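dumping the sequnces here before i forget
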Amino acid sequence: MQEGDYPTECALLVKGFAYRQKLLHNGARQIISIHIPGEFVDLQNSMLSLADHNVQSLSRCETATVPIAALQALMKRSPAIAKAMWLDTLIDSSIFREWVVNVGRRDAKTRIAHLLCELALRMEASGAGSGPTYHFPLTQDQLADATGLTPVHTNRTLQSLRRDGLITLSSNALTVLDWERLREAGDFNERYLHHAV
Amino acid sequence: MQEGDYPTECALLVKGFAYRQKLLHNGARQIISIHIPGEFVDLQNSMLSLADHNVQSLSRCETATVPIAALQALMKRSPAIAKAMWLDTLIDSSIFREWVVNVGRRDAKTRIAHLLCELALRMEASGAGSGPTYHFPLTQDQLADATGLTPVHTNRTLQSLRRDGLITLSSNALTVLDWERLREAGDFNERYLHHAV
DNA sequence: CGGAAAATTGAGTACTCTCAACCAGCGTGG
DNA sequence: CCACGCTGGTTGAGAGTACTCAATTTTCCG
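..and the predicted 3d for all of it:
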């Protein structure tokens, strides 16, 4: 899926990770969302006939593709489903808002810690992972593009988080050593995820 | 409307400007969206029972408030209205995505130029203003909080845009002197606004 | 006219970036 | 089996954009 395309189907992520990104004219990239198994990747693009961003897979992914026309019909027929998808989109939107805050007003360390908290919690909530150790699908370059930092600074910031005894992270395995302190370091409050209480 | 509240109605902005913001623990603020007359300010908060951000008015505003229950009923009854609101939310969401890019990957000058372009174009599209001169509802402090910069740096960056002959801006009047060059300076492409073609 | 809010200026600081080199792990192929 | 090359991660040094603090001027309103 490329920016500018006219999508005709949307994807439900069954297995594996994906992300959405936007490319800038100067060649820079901003990752605008990360998707874990069980999530719709592309409802937005699907409903707005013109794609305003593009989607990439992080690992080998299995997706279930649904034709948009079918989805629209389904929503028309079942208000319950329509509402569920609506909710999905709204939560998506809420996460974008938090990301604006994250890249806009937090320093590097807080920014990265916040993203780690978010991913860990979403994995927990979706059942895609649990315990103190999680599969972490991003390379440092991608983490940099998600947080609006450079790869070099991302690397140094991760080291600082490790030095503080908050996490370990290597070869796609993230271990949260001290959840409370990581949450604090990340200025993290999960309210915006709107997980059921 | 405060973060953490349980909203029961949502507001259609009839006259005046408003914005949504999130406050950080350290007292910083990030403005996450700006609303011009004719827009729903709060569909998001309305549908997610718990507010994850809060809303402020920029100028004296007139709003039409709609009870959420009524809205839900209306959506249930009329698929056309449901779809329209859905679209409204999706475009909202698209703008958030672009803001993530804006604060994440653009430098100060580009960032501010981009925001000016966006506001100008949205005013045009909504009929809330036109011509090279627009009502500009933000103070420099607010512009800073919308772009993730400091007020001082925002001030200097605006001066630089003025020196370049791209805009004039004073007492809430923004004049775009050279639309093409401003658009270029702001790395701006209006696709994400999803305005009808 | 006076006071508050908004805008502007100056000087010094620092966080993050750039550029560049180097290391480690790993799959491929000779 | 080891060399090779590639991707991802790490380190160093220096530069620069944006920040902080603080004072001053201008504008806005009551």
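Chain A touches chain B at residues 3-4, 20, 22, 24-26, 28-30, 32-33, 44, 47-48, 50, 52-53, 76, 79, 82, 86-87, 89-94, 96-101, 103-106, 147-148, 187, 191-192, 194 (CB under 8 Å).
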